[in-house]
Amino acid sequence: MSGTWGSKIKLSIFGESHGAGIGIVIDGIKPGFKIDKDYIMYQMKRRAPGDGKFSTTRKENDEFEIMSGIFNGRTTGTPICAVIRNENTKSKDYEKTKNLMRPGHADYTGYIKYEGFNDYRGGGHFSGRLTAPIVFVGALCRKILYDKNIVIGSHIKSIKDVNDRSFDISDDSLNVKKVEGLSKQEFPVLDSSVREKMQNTILNAKKDGDSVGGIVEAAVVNLPAGIGDPFFDSIESKLSHILFSIPAVKGVEFGAGFDITRMLGSEANDEYYMTKDKSVSTYTNNNGGILGGISNGMPLIFKVAIKPTPSIAKVQRTVDIDKKENESIEIKGRHDPCIVVRALPVIESAAAIAIMDLL
Amino acid sequence: MSGTWGSKIKLSIFGESHGAGIGIVIDGIKPGFKIDKDYIMYQMKRRAPGDGKFSTTRKENDEFEIMSGIFNGRTTGTPICAVIRNENTKSKDYEKTKNLMRPGHADYTGYIKYEGFNDYRGGGHFSGRLTAPIVFVGALCRKILYDKNIVIGSHIKSIKDVNDRSFDISDDSLNVKKVEGLSKQEFPVLDSSVREKMQNTILNAKKDGDSVGGIVEAAVVNLPAGIGDPFFDSIESKLSHILFSIPAVKGVEFGAGFDITRMLGSEANDEYYMTKDKSVSTYTNNNGGILGGISNGMPLIFKVAIKPTPSIAKVQRTVDIDKKENESIEIKGRHDPCIVVRALPVIESAAAIAIMDLL
Amino acid sequence: MSGTWGSKIKLSIFGESHGAGIGIVIDGIKPGFKIDKDYIMYQMKRRAPGDGKFSTTRKENDEFEIMSGIFNGRTTGTPICAVIRNENTKSKDYEKTKNLMRPGHADYTGYIKYEGFNDYRGGGHFSGRLTAPIVFVGALCRKILYDKNIVIGSHIKSIKDVNDRSFDISDDSLNVKKVEGLSKQEFPVLDSSVREKMQNTILNAKKDGDSVGGIVEAAVVNLPAGIGDPFFDSIESKLSHILFSIPAVKGVEFGAGFDITRMLGSEANDEYYMTKDKSVSTYTNNNGGILGGISNGMPLIFKVAIKPTPSIAKVQRTVDIDKKENESIEIKGRHDPCIVVRALPVIESAAAIAIMDLL
Amino acid sequence: MSGTWGSKIKLSIFGESHGAGIGIVIDGIKPGFKIDKDYIMYQMKRRAPGDGKFSTTRKENDEFEIMSGIFNGRTTGTPICAVIRNENTKSKDYEKTKNLMRPGHADYTGYIKYEGFNDYRGGGHFSGRLTAPIVFVGALCRKILYDKNIVIGSHIKSIKDVNDRSFDISDDSLNVKKVEGLSKQEFPVLDSSVREKMQNTILNAKKDGDSVGGIVEAAVVNLPAGIGDPFFDSIESKLSHILFSIPAVKGVEFGAGFDITRMLGSEANDEYYMTKDKSVSTYTNNNGGILGGISNGMPLIFKVAIKPTPSIAKVQRTVDIDKKENESIEIKGRHDPCIVVRALPVIESAAAIAIMDLL
Fold first, then answer.
1. Could you give the residue ranges of the DSSP H alpha helices within B147-285?
2. B354 Cβ contact partners less than 8 Å away, ≥ 6 residues apart
3. CA atoms lying within 13 Å on the CB side of residue D314
């Protein structure tokens, strides 16, 4: 069991890629909050496949129906359920290959866990499609956080071995406007000179029937100090819990992350100073805005490793789970050569949800 | 609030560094399980400061008293509570410096969160001392897992910029005996030629009144396929949740982790084959034994980034939170120049606990 | 927040009487369980208004759509979501009276809690209609329990002051067939001679524009000994928690319940004996099959007090919440003169759900 | 598993009657709250056996040690753990009778659930002694509620068939002073003329080696409107959940409870009126201050059925669980002929805890 999450808010996610629909229930949202459907649709569109240049050309219906919890355009305070119906789901295609376990996918682990009863079509419950309801809830939460001036943004830190620069506490890339503006870029990077190289890396992989991954760096600005807990609900714990539920995420780090292990304590420690208006600030932000699991008022910074899309056109070695024989598989269809761009709104949503649960 | 964790088992942790004592309640352990006190003490000793060469020379009392849940040497099935009393706690020392926020510590975030009412002595509830109850529970869980042939071990992957090699699916470092044997090394590495260089790195930092961090790599072998869940309780989610509650952890990655983002899909995907005895295996293990949040039967591999100990002897810039003025601080006392070695049993314990909760 | 419940299974309920729809997500049901739609519809029909003789003549659409978690007619092991769409919802009617707080309803408490943003139409989220998803899940659970030979049934113990006899451990009314058979009665009583008197009591109240309540007595037979927990998840705790969420429930008692307070200890204690096949039994069942929160293998017996339907045709004194003035209200429409009969499958479902969560 | 409870606060209870000690962890209490040890001890004393006239003459040590979460006499905001050590526990006595299942006790159900590994001495984890930590936490919560002017009190509604009158909305027995004052009575009743008859009923049972039970009626005054939730966390759900974990509780009802089933809707509905200061009130309080699971600002009223103490001196029929034979048992020792008086502070505490969790 796994479909519920949260303490102060509760999520309950459901659905399979080729079932009747997917959706989510969110409980714990205060009454009276005005729903901005355009904003939700805008965020969901960022996750949608797009024009197919860097993503699949497959069309996905992401139109959501709100079943409950909204009345006269405002939250009622009771559970909100949103459903996204599945359409044009060619199920027959999957029958033939259902026993061939796609490498890098959850076909085999799902088969074992659910004793062969899982819906194998299009990845079933493991489908990346399940991130659409996350973006729905994320958009809701982001608007609520925005009213508190808490803003979340992210950029593509790397595609394969092409790197963007990182957020830097000393420049202005971390002000509200800039962070927010990132989501208006179709391919958000801090250093625009790396964009084309990143895109070419994706297109080359696509041409070869292969795929690439990358790293997303996200920032939450204006998170007040004092949010989060020590054992067991640190900001890092809450955030990583939900991030590591997102398909393809294999690493999460905060602040300088793994790089902090190569610093001396005297370099890593973020020394304090009083600002002119007598608030506490730090000279550096190696701890990513978190100490003892609790926010210190500096920007919350984290990075997420996204593995290359497991669906590739190349022939791969696998097994037939029914016949218990070695086999080869060639995955047909329109695949994402890279899901990093589409992952951005999902990661930002996860952050918004985790923060809502801690506030 | 944060002190409870878990679904199938429930932990409830409590205590401050200089209060009456620290401890933990664990509920959900099956009745009839024989308690091995020696094994528990052995694991707790690994976490204890040791002879002080690479760690603090401060003595910590780690003797635990079992208050409940054990009868005639076996678990009763009711909640187990273990208490570790604090001793020789020189509280007076802390009075003078209580308003000086130590950089890299949770002094400031704790002050804000708890509105100045937190126990500031020795880090209070944020103290690394709180990891002792985690090791107690971890030892309990490890013994239970051991009966199912599930074994956990870890080694020091790096100290600052000195690197050990990684677990390699193709060599024998991942068999039960070897993994288990790691904990018998005082300073566990896979490639013994790097040990001295690592130790010198620590000693040099110590000499300079500075500190270093590092990376721990852990392996869980013989975890059966089918454990874990997709949204929201993937193995990665559960494990990272508890790992990121451990003080000083700033990054967690599974399998190839951040490195997988630099591979092509065709390299990253772990292709399958049937073994002679008709079980499913993979040629590589870039996914660290987890797909779709669920174990696939391969070794579960993860790495944890430990930041340099924030307590250093060097003078640091900080603020006086009461006077709201800039200040400098020089932290006296016997500090750990590096806590990576002591972190190993804590990380292994966290893994054991997370797995117990998923089984 | 309140919409989620459970440990081993998780429910997430949503919906308003006059919104797009109502529904439920249930997580934690094992894969491979065959869905019996006819059985579910049969149970839902028992809860539906019926022919209107003893209930409202209002038509309610109880057709459910399964959105997820079922594949090829069997559970997949992933969250199951069922949605029931609302139809013919004449919302305009409610506009005029929305500020008049109906006595005995949740209009006022909902208004305060949700700060006036709640959906007031037809009771909104407080509507008895929300019990339909409970019956859906209950039917699922009952079938699973039935495979373990655990059977749940209930009868009308009283309507106003007309009483049926109670389950008696010494007669055969507690065998599987009899308990199960109860649900086949349209108006289930143990002593059929009281049926007509009960029905006349309802019809008289209806004629007077008034309403009546009653007591439901339920039995769970073949529940194995050893289910449930002491602090804090006793069978009584779990069961009462969910029963007291059902609208109109004002009392819950187990075994002899409040009557046990009038016995001597020597009368109340259920003495033990060994049966011929060396299993443990009791001579009496004053404790209703539960000791220390745990089942003892005897039939689990409990009673539930259902208050008279608050919707009555008589003029009642109330307030206008907007104008802050005294007012009178005459509730128009087709009301249930008594909801006890319709409550039976809901109570049985609640029991099935609570037991599923404890097994 | 069962030892944890709560959402906004989290309890974790542990201990056995004859183990090293019993205790509780409570998390989620705000920092800065001043601890009133005298008040806690006063409440714990109410639960303690007393002078033995109406209760056991057994001495119980109820001295608690606060292990954590309190600093300089105030809550720190981190988990509070209190431990009560067990003393003078004559364990040998229990060895001889451990296979004889005491009727009305949890010996048999505990034996089955914990597979014979439970601590059988003095009821082990099922002991009424476990209510001491509940009173500890309850006293903490009551003081916090008291600062919000929310006051809890209770009286003995009945002992066996001797009845006190009920709280009446129209008299002054429900004002803060009177409700609070109840706990200052050693044997709290509303109508003092019934006290002696009740006490004689207890003494007669004692003389006969028998026991009696009774009903406790409790009131919470000044609970603001808007507290609680519909599905699944109604006030009734939360409160009954914790009440039904208290040993010996067999029934819980709110407001008129089971009696409401014998009223007409027009009698049962609590009609509204505006008070002079324009607040909403009701003429009657049959719903006990709760509608739709949410408080309406009227006094919260509930009754709890306490069964006769199962420990009686009379010979009873039972089984030897080891030999699987019929046996007789004569329970030696100093028993409570009635635990209703001692149950009052426990029930009030449970109410305080449930309300704290909902506020």
1. 176-182, 195-207, 235-243, 265-268
2. B235, B238, B239, B241, B242
3. 20
Could you tell me which chain D residue has the CA closest to the CA of A230? Answer: D78
**First vs last Cα of chain C: how many Å apart?**
26
Q: In chain C, what percentage of residues exceed pLDDT 90? A: 84
Chain B residues close to C7, C-beta within 8 Å: 7
- Name the helix (H) or strand (E) containing B44: helix B37-47
**Partners for C (CB, 8 Å, 3+ pairs)?**
A, B, D
> In chain D, where are the structural domains located?
4-358
Query: What token pair was written down for C139?
Result: 């039917």
- Largest CA-CA distance found in chain D, in angstroms, rounded: 72
Mean pLDDT of D75-92: 87
The rounded mean pLDDT for chain C is 93
Question: What token pair was written down for D338?
Answer: 């009635």
Is residue A54 predicted with pLDDT exceeding 80?
no
Put simply, the answer to whether D16 touches B79 (Cβ < 8 Å) is no
DSSP reduced 3-state for C306:
strand
State yes or no: D342 annotated in a binding site.
no
Residues 93-152 of B with CB under 8 A from D: 113-119, 124-125
Closest residue by Cα to residue A228 from A279, A296, A286: A296
Per the rule left: phi > 0, alpha: psi between -120 and 50, beta: everything else, A290 is beta
pTM listed for this prediction? 0.95
Q: Which residues on adjacent β-strands are paired with residue A253? A: A303, B251
Give the ranges where chain D is alpha helix by DSSP (H).
37-47, 92-97, 107-113, 131-146, 176-182, 195-207, 235-243, 265-268, 340-358
Interface confidence (ipTM) of the complex: 0.96
Burial (CB < 10 A; 0-12, 13-18, 19+), residue C39, is middle
Average pLDDT value for residue range C223-250: 96
Lowest average pLDDT, out of A19-23, A94-98, A325-329, C189-193, goes to A94-98
Q: Is D10 on the interface with B (CB under 8 A)?
A: yes
Alpha carbon separation from C287 to C46, C254, D239, D307 (Å, rounded): 30, 7, 21, 9
* Nearest 10 degrees: Cα torsion C141, C145, C146, C148: 160
- Quote the CATH superfamily of domain C4-358: Chorismate synthase AroC (3.60.150.10)
Cβ atoms of residues D79 and D94 within 8 Å: no
- Alpha-carbon gap, residue D233 to D239, rounded angstroms: 9
Q: Distance (Å, rounded) from C-alpha A229 to C-alpha A233? A: 5
DSSP D245-287: TSTTEEEEEETTGGGGGGSBHHHHS--EEE-TTS-EEES--TT
